[in-house]
């Protein structure tokens, strides 16, 4: 009774008081520990049972094998398998199914398959165990083959079978296949359970399939599953990934029960939708209510600190991570590198990087990107070379960071070399993002004709990012002719993007072509396009203050402008001369100076 209620301490006390413990008593304790997630303790009980020479039966083995799987204790699992063979229980179907499950969960899928193929009698649980094993080991192809074989052999598929394969497709990034399999499941009139629905929600989030997500949400409500915290969290994730953040928040607020997963998903949703301040505020609320952030929570909220350059708050999360042993978690450390780099403290970023005992490709990418954004291109390339020396294989993403670092440091020759070696040495086919980096590299270096020819010869259709990089470079270097060509492509690709029109207008303004500036502004007015106001922010006493161009809504605005005016006077007295070339307005310099101050 105590064991089934999860009260292991009471169960142990009763067990210890039994003077003559039989096989059933030992089996009960082994199963109790295993079912409550204490695999190591279950194995200790089994070991003690052996030492006391207590007879073991089918239930003993069916109870201890899940403990081996839970603790990924392959060595002990093999020992138990040996006892089973000696005891003659190997072909008991229940024991056989447990052995398959143990090997699969310990990563030995070939051993599991060998045992499965040798079983004289199989039931649906046997098939489910091996299919789930392939799924858990990331092999959806073999899982699918077995699934089709089940159908050919007329083995009745149950909800566990369908759910296992749907889950596998969803977990391995094949959301479309997961949804297609669900449609087949519906045609087979098999009713989904909460595991199925949870996997389908993950698939919808992966595909940003809003309509299917809404259907599943309605299904959850109709079936009374909306009190399930994990399903509720998955629903939040769908709406957040589909840019329906207000709906996500309504689902979050409507949950009768929330756990740390729910809060983490909502925080991550805010970050994904660019609402960094709301993410930080929600994390504070979570902690105020006494919920402790997990490593995943910290990794989810740190990008908000990076986005706002909220150094102090990022450092506080770092301290929390240190206190709770999360700094050694590689995805937390990677996020910390990104925060410190974007907050301008590249030395602290490097310190975190150096402390990572087992770096993955994301760690190296984050450090290279950090050096790149600070203009330390040579340091970025040095880190990349160090990664190569470790034997770790670079991926396509890290080459984007490498090429970007070359671009921000004017390393044209090096950029070409790495762009070429990506294909030659690592057989990575350049994506449009790599071409955008190269266009930016050539453009920043003033090689505008070469950049234009490079884009025209691309084997891929140039994206808006590619032409945008060229247009920005033309504005910097004052090449109106090529800039106009780039702008024409941009207007065709993104006719509603005000930023492209602003770039062209600014380029005309720098060239003193005010008639063209007026023409571009007329186009924008006719299309109803407006430039998003410039935004800046500062962190003060753990609060982020945001300012927009021309916005006087801050309660301390009068004092702020008075201080700016005072600083402006002092700067001029010290010999400062404002650079009004970037205040692109057809007005006198005095007014341009005011515009710069107001921004």
How would you characterize this protein structure?
With 599 residues, the chain is mostly helical. The chain is 70% helix and 2% strand. It has 33 helices and two strands. It has a two-stranded antiparallel sheet. A hairpin with a 2-residue loop joins strand 1 and strand 2 (543-548). Helix 6 (93-105) packs parallel to helix 8 (124-136). The radius of gyration is 31 Å and the shape is elongated. The chain starts with 7 loop residues before the first helix and ends with a helix. The model is unreliable at 587-592 (pLDDT under 50).
Provide a brief overview of the structure:
This protein has 33 helices and two strands.
Topology:
Layout: H1 8-17, H2 23-35, H3 39-51, H4 58-70, H5 74-87, H6 93-105, H7 109-118, H8 124-136, H9 140-152, H10 159-171, H11 175-187, H12 194-207, H13 210-222, H14 229-241, H15 245-254, H16 260-272, H17 276-288, H18 295-308, H19 311-323, H20 330-342, H21 346-355, H22 361-373, H23 377-389, H24 396-409, H25 412-424, H26 432-444, H27 448-456, H28 464-477, H29 480-493, H30 498-510, H31 514-527, E1 535-540, E2 543-548, H32 557-573, H33 589-598
Antiparallel strand pairs: 1-2
List unreliable stretches of 5+ residues.
587-592
Mean pLDDT: 89
Global morphology: elongated
The spatial strand order of the largest sheet comes to 1-2
Query: What is the gyration radius calculated from CA atoms?
Result: 31 Å
Separate helix tally: 33
Report how far the terminal alpha carbons are from each other: 70 Å
Supply the helix-strand structural class. mainly alpha
Helical residue percent band: over 70%
- Proportion of residues in extended strands: under 5%
């Amino acid at each position: 009774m105590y064991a089934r209620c999860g009260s292991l301490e009471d169960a142990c006390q009763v067990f210890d008081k039994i003077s003559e413990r039989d096989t059933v008593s030992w089996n009960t304790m082994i199963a109790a520990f295993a079912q409550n997630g204490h695999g190591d303790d279950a194995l200790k009980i089994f070991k003690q049972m052996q030492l006391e020479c207590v007879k073991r039966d089918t239930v003993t083995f069916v109870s201890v094998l899940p403990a081996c799987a839970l603790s990924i204790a392959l060595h002990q699992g093999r020992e138990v398998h040996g006892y089973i063979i000696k005891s003659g229980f190997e072909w008991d179907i229940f024991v056989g199914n447990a052995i398959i499950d143990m090997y699969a969960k310990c990563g030995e899928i070939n051993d599991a398959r060998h045992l499965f193929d040798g079983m004289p009698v199989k039931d649906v649980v046997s098939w489910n165990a091996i299919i789930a094993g392939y799924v858990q080991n990331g092999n959806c192809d073999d899982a699918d083959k077995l699934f089709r074989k089940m159908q050919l052999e007329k083995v009745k598929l149950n909800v566990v079978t369908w759910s296992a394969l749907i889950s596998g497709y969803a977990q391995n990034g094949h959301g479309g296949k997961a949804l297609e399999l669900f449609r087949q499941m519906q045609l087979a009139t098999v009713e989904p359970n909460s595991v199925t629905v949870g996997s389908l929600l993950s698939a919808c989030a992966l595909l940003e399939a809003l309509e299917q997500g809404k259907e599943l949400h309605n299904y959850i409500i109709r079936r009374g599953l909306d009190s399930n915290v994990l399903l509720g969290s998955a629903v939040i994730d769908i709406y957040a990934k589909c840019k329906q953040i207000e709906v996500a928040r309504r689902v979050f607020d409507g949950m009768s029960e929330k756990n740390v997963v729910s809060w983490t998903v909502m925080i991550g949703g805010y970050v994904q939708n660019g609402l960094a301040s709301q993410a930080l505020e929600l994390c504070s609320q979570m902690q105020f209510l006494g919920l402790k952030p997990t490593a995943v929570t910290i990794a989810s909220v740190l990008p908000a600190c990076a986005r706002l350059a909220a150094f102090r708050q990022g450092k506080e999360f770092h301290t929390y991570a240190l206190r709770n042993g999360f700094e050694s978690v590689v995805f937390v450390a990677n996020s910390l590198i990104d925060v410190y780099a974007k907050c301008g403290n590249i030395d602290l970023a490097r310190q975190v990087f150096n402390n990572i005992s087992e770096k993955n490709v994301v760690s190296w990418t984050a450090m290279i990107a950090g050096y790149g954004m600070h203009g330390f291109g040579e340091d970025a390339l040095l880190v990349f070379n160090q990664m190569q020396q470790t034997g770790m294989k670079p991926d396509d993403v890290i080459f984007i960071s490498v090429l970007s670092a070359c671009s921000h440091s004017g390393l044209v020759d090096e950029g070409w070399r790495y762009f070429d070696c990506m294909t030659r040495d690592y057989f990575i086919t350049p994506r449009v993002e790599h071409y955008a980096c190269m266009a930016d590299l050539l453009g920043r270096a003033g090689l505008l004709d070469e950049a234009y020819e490079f884009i025209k010869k691309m084997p891929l259709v140039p994206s808006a990012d590619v032409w945008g990089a060229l247009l920005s470079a033309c504005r910097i270097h004052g090449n109106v002719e090529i800039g106009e060509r780039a702008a024409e492509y941009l207007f065709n690709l993104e006719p509603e993007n005000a930023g492209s029109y602003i770039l062209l207008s600014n380029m005309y303004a720098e060239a003193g072509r005010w008639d063209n500036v007026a023409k571009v502004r007329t186009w924008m007015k006719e299309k109803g396009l407006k430039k998003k106001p410039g935004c800046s922010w500062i962190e003060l006493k753990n609060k982020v203050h945001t300012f927009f161009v021309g916005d006087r809504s801050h309660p301390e605005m009068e004092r702020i402008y008075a201080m700016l005016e005072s600083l402006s006077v002092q700067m001029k007295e010290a010999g400062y001369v404002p650079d009004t070339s970037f205040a692109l307005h057809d007005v006198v310099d005095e007014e341009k100076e005011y515009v710069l101050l107001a921004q």
